[in-house]
Amino acid sequence: MQQRELGRTHRNVSAIGLGTWQLGADWGSVDEADALAVLDAAYEAGVNFFDTADVYGDGRSEQLIGTWLKANPDAGVTVATKMGRRVEQLPENYTMDAFRAWNDRSRKNLGVDTLDLVQLHCPPTPVYSTDAIYDALDTMVDEGRMANYGVSVETVDEALTAMARPNIATVQIIINAFRHKPLETVLPAAREAGVGIIARVPLASGLLTNRYTLQTEFAKDDHRNFNRDGSSFDVGETFSGVDYATGLEAASEFAKLAAAEAPEATSAQVALAWLAAQDGVSTIIPGARNAQQARANAAAGSLQISEGFTASVRDLYDAKLREQIHPRW
Which of 105, 203, 289, 307 has the fewest beta carbons under 10 Å from its own? Predict the structure, then answer.
C-alpha cells in the first residue's frame, strides 16, 4: 500500500483508508463481530487510516475502533474523528466548552488520551472564518487533547477559507468520478499550502459500484433511502447530490470504461484507483460493511490508471453530470 504524508500532520497514511460511518449502523445494521472483522481486514491489507465521527451511531463507530485499538496497541493506525454535529447547527453553539465536552467523549470512546486528528464536522459556513474557533482549536492542541485538527466541508469555498489558516492540517471533502470541482480548485490550493486532502464519498454512495438499479431498495435506516432530497443533512452526502436515475446511467458508462481499463478489477476498484491517483489527494476513505469489501477496497491501491482513462472520466463527467451539479458544490 502506498504511503503518503497527511498534510501538516506529518504522519504517513495509506492511500486507501477506511471510512467507518457504516459501522455506526447508519447505513443499516452491522453487528460488532462484522465491524471488528472489517477493521482487521483493512489493517491486514495495508490500511492505516481510519476515519470516524462522534455522531456515527451516536458514538458506536468510535467505540468499535476503540475496542480494536485496545486489542491492537502497536498497530500504528492514525484515527481521525469529527465533532460538531451533536447540536443545532448554529455558529454560536461552537464554543470552547462544547469542544471540550465533545473531545472528552471521543477520547473516552476511542480509549486514548490524545486524539490523532479532530475535524470540525461540516459546521455552519461562518464557523470556517471565525478567529475564535481556531483559537479554541489551538488551545486544545496545546492542552494535549489532540495532536492536529482539520475540517470536513461541503463546498469548495469552505475548503479554501479553512486552508488559509496556518494550523489547519487537513481538509476532508467529497471527491469522486461524479464530483470534479474540488479537483480543479481545492487540490491545487492544498498542494501549495501543504494541507492534506481526505477524499470522502469516493464511490458516490455506491453508485460507482454499478450494482444498483431503479428497482434497488435500500433499508429504511439507510441514508440512501431517506436523504435523497437532503431532508436530514446536506444532499451532497447522498449519491454526491446527483439525481439517482442520472447517476445510474453515468455509473453504467463508467463501468464500461473501467472494464476496458482494468478487466481484472471491479468498477468500484477502478473508481478508487482513479481517485487515489489524483495529485494532491492524501487518502480516500471508502466504507466497507464486511471484510471482503474492506480487502477489495484496499486492493485498489495497487491499480495503475492511465492518462487516457482519466481523460475519458473527465469527458463522461462533462457530458452527463457537470451541468447537473449544483454550483454550491
Answer: 307
